[in-house]
C-alpha cells in the first residue's frame, strides 16, 4: 500500500446543515476507535453547512489532532438527482469525490453520516480491493427481498450472481475512478433513470461484477441488526448477519429510525449519545424528532427484542 498512504487516511462524508451534527458524531466515532487519529484526514462535502457548524466539526476533529477540510461539488447536475422518501440530494454528492478531493489523494473511505464506527478505521483502509474500483458490503435488505431483486432486474438487468451492495460505506480507488472517468458514467446513468434506490442503484449498475466485497461487519444496516424473517430464513444471509452482529465494526442506521430522534435507549442508540458527548455538538438539545415521523417506537422496539432473542439462541 505504501508508506505515504499509511500516513494519511482520507475519509469523506457529505452533509447539509441538518446533518452536520450527525457527521461530527460519525467523525468522533472514527477518531475514538483508531489508534492513530492524527493520521485521519476528513473531507466534508458541504451542502450549505453553516459557519457555526463548521467550527464545531473542526473542534471535534482537533480534539484528536485530526483535521477536516470542506469541499464543494463541481458537477452541479448532481443537485438535480431524483429524491424520494428520506433521501436528500446530498446523497448524490459522493459521486463527485474523484473530481473534488486533491489530486494526490488516490484512495478514500466514504461514510454516510447516519452511522457509527466501532473498530479501527485503519483496518478498513487496508482492505485489498484486488484491482477493483471500489469495495462495499452486500445489502441483505435487497438480497433477501424477492420484490426488490425483481425491481433491480427490471430496472437495469441486474443478475443475482453478481450480488448487490449498499453504498453507505465505500472504499474507493480514486486513481482508477479518475482514469476510467467513472463519475461521468454515473452522471450519465442518473440523467436517464429515476432509480428506486437512487445513487446506490446507479453504482450497482455501473460496477456490476466489478467490486470487492467487504465483510458485512463494516456496514451493519437495519435488515441485519433487526434479524428480520427474510434474513433468518435465508441460510447464507442468516450466517452473515449473525457473524456481523457479534462483532460489528460499523452500525449504519439506514432507513426510517434514526438514533438522534429518540432518547437514549439501550440496545439501540446509546453509542450515538456516547460519541455525541465526545463531539463539539455535546450541548445540542436532544432528542431531535423528525418533522414527518409517522411510525411508532413500539414497532422498532419489538424488532430489536426479536433480534436480541435470535442472536442469543442461534448458533
Quick structural overview:
The chain is 40% helix and 13% strand.
Can you give a write-up of this model?
- With about 325 residues, this protein is α/β, with parallel strands linked by helices.
- Helices cover about 40% and strands about 15% of the residues.
- The chain contains 15 helices and nine strands.
- It has a seven-stranded mixed sheet. The protein has a two-stranded antiparallel sheet with strand order 5-9.
- The two termini are about 35 Å apart.
Instruction: Name the average pLDDT.
Output: 92
Largest sheet: 7 strands, mixed
Q: What structural class should be given to the helix and strand makeup?
A: alpha/beta
Which sequence of SSEs, written as H and E, runs from N to C? HEHEHEHEEHEHHEHHHEHHHEHH
Uncertain runs are 1-5, 81-85
> Helix fraction?
40-55%
- Principal-axis shape: globular
Number of strands: 9
Rg, alpha carbons: 19 Å
Q: Tally the helices: what do you get?
A: 15
Terminus-to-terminus distance = 37 Å
Strand order of the largest sheet: 3-2-1-4-7-6-8
Layout of SSEs?
Blueprint: H1 3-7, E1 9-15, H2 20-32, E2 40-46, H3 51-62, E3 67-71, H4 97-100, E4 107-111, E5 115-117, H5 121-125, E6 134-136, H6 140-143, H7 146-156, E7 169-173, H8 174-180, H9 182-192, H10 198-206, E8 212-213, H11 222-225, H12 229-232, H13 235-245, E9 250-252, H14 270-278, H15 297-313
Parallel strand pairs: 1-2, 1-4, 2-3, 6-8
Antiparallel strand pairs: 4-7, 5-9, 6-7
Amino acid at each position: 500500500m505504501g508508506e505515504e498512504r499509511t500516513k494519511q487516511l482520507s475519509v469523506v462524508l457529505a452533509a447539509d446543515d441538518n446533518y452536520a451534527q450527525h457527521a461530527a458524531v460519525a467523525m468522533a466515532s472514527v477518531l475514538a476507535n483508531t489508534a492513530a487519529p492524527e493520521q485521519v484526514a476528513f473531507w466534508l462535502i458541504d451542502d450549505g453547512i453553516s459557519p457555526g457548524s463548521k467550527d464545531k466539526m473542526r473542534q471535534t476533529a482537533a480534539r484528536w489532532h485530526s483535521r477536516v477540510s470542506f469541499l464543494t461539488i463541481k458537477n452541479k447536475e448532481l443537485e438535480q438527482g431524483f429524491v424520494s422518501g428520506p433521501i436528500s440530494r446530498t446523497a448524490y454528492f459522493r459521486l463527485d469525490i474523484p473530481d473534488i478531493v486533491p489530486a494526490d489523494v488516490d484512495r478514500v473511505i466514504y461514510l454516510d453520516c447516519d452511522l457509527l464506527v466501532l473498530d479501527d478505521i485503519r483496518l478498513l483502509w487496508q482492505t485489498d480491493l484486488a484491482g477493483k474500483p471500489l469495495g462495499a458490503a452486500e445489502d441483505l435488505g435487497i438480497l433477501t427481498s424477492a420484490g426488490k431483486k425483481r425491481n433491480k432486474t427490471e430496472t437495469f438487468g441486474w443478475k443475482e450472481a453478481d450480488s448487490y451492495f449498499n453504498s453507505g460505506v465505500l472504499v474507493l480507488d480514486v486513481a482508477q475512478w479518475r482514469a476510467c472517468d467513472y463519475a461521468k458514467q454515473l452522471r450519465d446513468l442518473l440523467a436517464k433513470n429515476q432509480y428506486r434506490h437512487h445513487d446506490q442503484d446507479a453504482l450497482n449498475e455501473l460496477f456490476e461484477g466489478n467490486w470487492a466485497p467487504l465483510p458485512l461487519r463494516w456496514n451493519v444496516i437495519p435488515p441485519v441488526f433487526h434479524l428480520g424473517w427474510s434474513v433468518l430464513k435465508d441460510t447464507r444471509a442468516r450466517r452473515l448477519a449473525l457473524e456481523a452482529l457479534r462483532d460489528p465494526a460499523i452500525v449504519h442506521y439506514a432507513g426510517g429510525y434514526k438514533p438522534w430522534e429518540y432518547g437514549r435507549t439501550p440496545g439501540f442508540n446509546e453509542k450515538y449519545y456516547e460519541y455525541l458527548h465526545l463531539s463539539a455538538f455535546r450541548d445540542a438539545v436532544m432528542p431531535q424528532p423528525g418533522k414527518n415521523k409517522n411510525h411508532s417506537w413500539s414497532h422498532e422496539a419489538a424488532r430489536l427484542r426479536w433480534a436480541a432473542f435470535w442472536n442469543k439462541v442461534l448458533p
